[in-house]
Automatic annotation (TrEMBL):
Any GO MF annotation of the entry: phosphate transmembrane transporter activity
Pfam families: PHO4
Predominant localisation class: membrane
Keyword field: Membrane, Transmembrane, Transmembrane helix, Transport
Native source species: Desulfotomaculum copahuensis
Protein name: Inorganic phosphate transporter
Length: 321
């Protein structure tokens, strides 16, 4: 179930990492997807701090009864929400879905006291602050590029930025792998501890490899509906804007990874694009699309928690039959 979630996460979230390079025609879609798949795989194998945060900061798996049912319920809910928003073409957050689902399942199974609210709130702070940081970084990077290249010929500049965007898209996909694949590693490690298969939150090598490969395979499928939303429906991107958005989001994602905090890569990338558009002119941003993304951002945690609670009740009933 965790690997299925990771596969869906690959084509749901990683679409964001390559949307800008496809929109500006810096990379053909198939090459962009292959590049993103390999860079996600590399990023996923590099860090484990976020996995340990997911595995231990929301609840203590050692103290939970029915820990395996809790994990199953959380994954069912997160997968359902991801598929619903993917079908609608809304770039919602797989991170929010997984964290909301795990919290909802734990509360339903063991009550509010079972949730480590100090750890949960620290995760929530990262999820809230990262889009703001991405918006500000995108705005600053775009302003800096406009200042440095204000006298350059647009045709030559676009050609050079398209070439540069191959590298910034790769960097963004790598940073995505450092954060998103670790969430699945964390939930598998949580299940291993809850099931008594290991006593610490150390992430085994086989877990890293399976999570990284699942996300890489999911990325290779591609999420075209979300690519269209992120790549064309927030702002009209040119190569300079694409480079700015890629750099801003990659730096923010990697920064939070180093802090061992999960972020919504979806909302980081979308926010960096909004910041880039605002730097060009406020009216360049299609704020109706932005409002839809923010609405999904607000709904994901409570809806996924509710879905997880219902899933837990259903699985518990099935286990008694």
């Amino acid at each position: 179930m965790a690997l299925a979630f990771d596969f869906i996460n690959g084509f749901h979230d990683t679409a964001n990492a390559i949307a800008t390079s496809i929109s500006t025609k810096a990379l053909p879609p198939r090459i962009a997807i292959v590049l993103a798949s390999f860079m996600n795989l590399a990023g996923a194998l590099t860090f484990t701090g976020v996995a340990q945060t997911i595995g231990g900061k929301i609840a203590n798996p050692v103290k939970l009864e029915n820990g395996m049912i809790i994990v199953m319920a959380a994954l069912i809910a997160a997968i359902l929400w991801n598929l619903i928003t993917w079908y609608m073409g809304i770039p919602s957050s797989s991170s929010h879905a997984l964290i909301g689902s795990l919290t909802g399942a734990v509360i339903t199974a063991a009550g509010l006291r079972a949730v480590n609210f100090t750890g949960f709130l620290s995760i929530l702070e990262g999820l809230v602050l990262s889009p703001l940081a991405a918006f500000a970084t995108g705005l600053l990077v775009m302003l800096l590029i406009r200042l440095v290249f204000r006298n350059a010929a647009p045709h030559k500049l676009n050609r050079r930025f398209r070439l540069l965007q191959v590298f910034t898209a790769a960097f963004q996909a790598f940073s995505h792998g450092t954060n998103d694949a670790q969430k699945t590693m964390g939930i598998i490690t949580f299940a291993l501890v809850a099931g008594g298969f290991q006593s610490t939150l150390h992430v085994p090598l086989w877990v890293k490899l399976l999570a990284a490969l699942s996300m890489g395979l999911g990325t290779s499928v591609g999420g075209w509906k979300i690519i269209r939303t992120v790549g064309t429906r927030i702002i009209k991107l040119d190569p300079g804007s694409g480079v700015s958005a890629d750099m801003a989001s990659a730096m923010v994602i990697l920064g939070f990874t180093l802090l061992k905090l999960p972020v919504s890569t979806t909302h980081v990338i979308s926010s960096s694009i909004m910041g880039v558009g605002t730097a060009r002119r406020f009216s360049a941003v299609r704020w109706g699309t932005a409002q839809t993304i923010v609405t999904a951002w607000l709904l994901t945690l409570p809806v996924s928690a509710l879905l997880a609670g219902l899933s837990y009740l259903f699985l518990s009933l099935c286990s008694r039959i």
